[in-house]
Every structure is written in C-alpha cells, then in structure tokens.
Amino acid sequence: MDIIKSIESDQIKENAENFKIGDTIKVFYKIIEGKTERVQVYEGLALSLNNAGINRTVTVRKMSHGVGVERIFPINSPKIEKIEVTRRGKVRRAKLYYIRERVGKAAKVKELIKKKADQK
C-alpha cells in the first residue's frame, strides 16, 4: 500500500484547496480539439465536495439559459488548470443538494463577509 500512496502523493495538487461548499468558483478546464488545446471556464456554485484522496471531486452547478447544469470535476486531474474563487458563500451544510429544487432568489447563497481583522 505504501507504493500506491507514494505514487498518489506525487499527483495531488496543493493549490486547489482554497474553496469551500457554497462558494462561487471558476474552473479553468483544458479542452483538446483536434491538434489545438484551449482553456474553457466553467463558473458556478460548488454544491458538494467528495474527499477521497486523489479521487477528490467537486460538483459545480450553473444556470445556462434558465436551465440548471451540473458538472463533476476531478480536482487532481491534469486537465484542470486552476480553480479560482469568485465569491465566498455563507452556508451551514456540507452538501447543497436542496438548491436543485429552488428557483429564482431562493436558489441564491448569501455572501460571506469577513471583517478586516479576520482577513489578515
């Protein structure tokens, strides 16, 4: 088992740890089209985070033309260039699956406002 853990530890990304559930995040995802490679941005609300070592995933939900679209991203994938936090959310749950049934303003998450003393 030590061999597997040593191989996995080399592949784990350390810079993707800066977001939590309820945050609005931008996922910069590499897409290969033929011989060209480009980066596509997927911005949405982080609904759930599954922590399983190297198999960590995040479920991101966005509204596209009035329809909710969810996508699951493996955080440690080499296709993920970076994950950027747009807005911090104030939530009290570990999974935000109830957002799926909400419509309009009820589907929003309050913004987390930190005091200046906490930001240091």
From TrEMBL:
The keyword Ribosomal protein applies. GO terms for cellular component: cytosolic large ribosomal subunit. Pfam families: Ribosomal_L19. Keywords: Ribonucleoprotein, Ribosomal protein. It comes from the Bacteria. GO terms for molecular function: structural constituent of ribosome. One of its GO terms (biological process) is translation. HAMAP family: Ribosomal_bL19. This protein is located at the 30S-50S ribosomal subunit interface and may play a role in the structure and function of the aminoacyl-tRNA binding site. Belongs to the bacterial ribosomal protein bL19 family. NCBIfam families: rplS_bact. This is Large ribosomal subunit protein bL19. It comes from Spirochaeta isovalerica. The gene is rplS.
